[in-house]
Amino acid sequence: MNIVTLLPFIVLIGAMFLMTRSAKNKQRQAAQMRDQMQPGTGVRTIGGMYATVKEISEDSVLLEVAPGVHAIYAKNSIGAVLEDAEYNRIVHGIEPDETEVPDDASSLTEGDAPADEKKIDLGKEAPEAPAVADKADKADESGEAPAKDAKQDTKRDGDADAK
């Protein structure tokens, strides 16, 4: 047989090996996570329900869904074992004490800028030239059309002649 005809089969077998290897790793990590469960630990089921572990048996777990409400679940149905801080944040709405982060950077830069530094206006509008404005006003008062050179002077970047 030619190696070219065997190459697709070798690639296919290699891809299958890599896929099963990653699936086994995920199963092993899930089993380790489930072994970390202890009574009093907060968990999330694969259905998205949050509960507290009360008892652990060989292949099932007794969960307290609400105060006084208990349910028995298979160990395989536990999706995640949560840390206490995360469980309290999600279930009870208790935020951990953290430093407050400002919404913008203005409070971080206050007092850092020197007082003698003047601000630069980055606006696009340029002030209108008074000489051009006076010529246009005089032309309007006398009833004449404004001079063509006055019109040329008032053009700015982005203005175009319509033809």
UniProtKB/TrEMBL annotation:
- Asked if the record carries the keyword Cell inner membrane, the reply is no
Q: Where in the cell is it found?
A: Cell membrane
Q: For the region Disordered, give the residue spans.
A: 93-163
Q: Name one Pfam family in it.
A: YajC
UniProt topology in membrane: Single-pass membrane protein
GO BP terms in the entry: protein transport
Q: Which keywords does the record carry? A: Cell membrane, Membrane, Protein transport, Translocation, Transmembrane, Transmembrane helix, Transport
Q: Where does it sit, as one GO cellular component term?
A: plasma membrane
- Report biased composition (Basic and acidic residues) as residue ranges: 115-127, 134-163
Q: Which InterPro entries match?
A: Preprotein_translocase_YajC
Q: Which family does it belong to?
A: Belongs to the YajC family.
Q: Would you tell me the protein name for this molecule?
A: Preprotein translocase subunit YajC
Q: Which species is this record about?
A: Streptomyces netropsis
